[in-house]
UniProtKB/TrEMBL annotation:
Composition-biased stretches (Low complexity): 12-22
Highest taxon in the source lineage: Eukaryota
Region: Disordered, residue numbers: 1-22, 589-612
Domain called WWE: residue spans: 31-112
Species annotation: Stegastes partitus
Molecular functions (GO terms): metal ion binding; phospholipase activity; triacylglycerol lipase activity
SUPFAM superfamilies: SAM/Pointed domain (SSF47769), WWE domain (SSF117839)
GO cellular component terms listed in the entry, alphabetical order: COPII-coated ER to Golgi transport vesicle
Similarity field: Belongs to the PA-PLA1 family.
DDHD domain segment(s): 472-663
Pfam family name, one: WWE_3
Protein name (Swiss-Prot/TrEMBL): DDHD domain containing 2
Amino acid sequence: FSSSQKHQRDLVSPVVEEASPSSTSSFEMLDMEAVPAPYREVQPHWFFCRRADDNTSWLPFSTEDSDKLENACNTGKSDVVVAVDGQRYDVRVKERMRYAVYWEQAPTEVRRCTWFYKGDKDTKFMPYQEDFSKSLEDAYMIAVTLDEWKRKLDFPTGETVILHNPKLIMQYQPIGLQDEWVSTPSEQTRPRTVKRGVDNIFVEIPDGESEKVDHLVFMVHGIGPACDLRFRSIIQCVNDFRSASLSLLASHYKRAQQDGQVGRVEFLPVNWHSALHGDATGVDEDIQRITLPSISRLRHFTNDTLLDLFFYNSPTYCQTIVDTVASEINRLHTLFKQRHPEFNAAVSVVGHSLGSLILFDLLTNQRNGSQAREGVPSGDLCHLNPGTLEQTLNRLGLQQYLDILKAENLDLESLALCQDSDLKDLGIPLGPRKKILNYVRRKWLPESVTSAVDYEYFDVGIGQVSIDYPQLAFQPQTFFAFGSPIGMFLTVRGLKRIDPNYTFPTCKSFYNIYHPYDPVAYRIEPMIVSDVDVEPMLIPHHKGRKRMHLELKDSLTRMSMDLKNNVLGSLRTAWQSFARLPVAALPPVEEGESTEAESSVSPEQPEQPEIKMGMLNGGRRIDYVLQEKPIESFNEYLFAIQSHLCYWESEDTALLLLKEIYDKLGVAFEQPQQ
């Protein structure tokens, strides 16, 4: 034995015979091994601490990350930093602290764990501190080597650990450390269960993330600092969405993962709310001065969330919001490229609620390569060359107004930015004013403008007015909108329809995804194809099935229509209509089975004529609707708010994103076996 181990042996003494009855009865029932196994050093596993709402939990790193941390710890260097969790965090090994890389977050403790404990009322095992664990391991080694059990280990803090046998080790707390409400002797002597090694506790160790990143997605939140009904931040919600995508990759792209075709998709949160409501703007302090003192909680909620909608319609704060979103996306993109220098894949963007409108306006006002070089505003320019101001007025038969316009130094570009009232102030009559503005704007002005405009003259996507839009450092591949009010805002701005030929200058794909009961969501397709009533595309269930209650609803609707139309004048036809639902889709419900039952056979969808949906999504469909859950169908209003916040935890939504991403990469989609 080493000198420290000899000292440890001195701390280990035989257990007093007066051990508590409650503990002796528990270990007498366990079989003791006749021949003890030889001592083997415990294998450590690294954990990190998570604190939320006064609740502390310890979560394990993946095996891969834990091995990296252990190897770094064994080097003995003092400045070792290990990237973990898909390189989203850095662990400073000597400090035992974990730091977020992409977002602001308080550092959390990291621990090299070998011994764990669980109280009588605890649900999970907690790791001991490292020095405490070392003392336990030394005592355990002595007990195994000498085959001496039923001994106790006393600590200076008053705790006592009794090593009854290799499988039964208990910790007793001194009376002074017991909870205040513990009163009975039996409760006071109730021990903690002690376990050695992570293999002996019930904990799910996550799979390590692939180092290969196939796609990068930035996710922009909506109003307020919280993103769901649990009042979680955008960081927490994106973490859940990322975890769902990793699970879906393992189930729906299993073969491609095994073949090395598929790595993973990285999702990073974009937070703009804190910048708007921070000290830099002072807006919260200004609002607080004029806020009434009554119903304070409701007013605080309104100021912190709903007012974001009004801020976005204010030129001053709208500029702050779009600048923050663009700069944050560009910052994250640059940092990601620095940490992943081999990354050369595509990038997409996701916006939820107001976040989708912010992205829509940003993308509408991006410049492609040639426009950026020439300083041309964003949007698709008309192919016709309008010529000079003089030629234009001659073409319109209004050459008598040339001197008036030249006196104000107006050319065609500046004329296109004029309001009707501007020309009226110059003394130009109503008729000529309308002719000039209509012609110039149609022939010269780009389809997306960044100044105040008369929307009467536009048939294309319009961005927020009077804003200097920043440019993104990349061209997004796809824009996904969750629960988006884009359609409503465009209509309120005066836009009646979107030109079918319109597309974002730098982004060629656009999906509008919504829950059917979402009160904030609006459609886009009717603004492109107004003469045809087109149903949205139904997003398949991630298990490849349509929800059973929707199947039943469709079948009853078909039967009702057949009865109403008296097809062939017989009930037989109506029954056959109902029977179109395959028998296998209606399995018998076993006792205790959830109402979440699904149809296991894909529904028979009537063929719809192909509809050209414009170029906003490359001619493909834009509006995609989630399937409501059976319980949600009972009361649409009850689940309205929840429906607007459901996207972060929706596996169906995550799978739609993955399928769009990997379809473009040519990776085959696999429907898992039921």
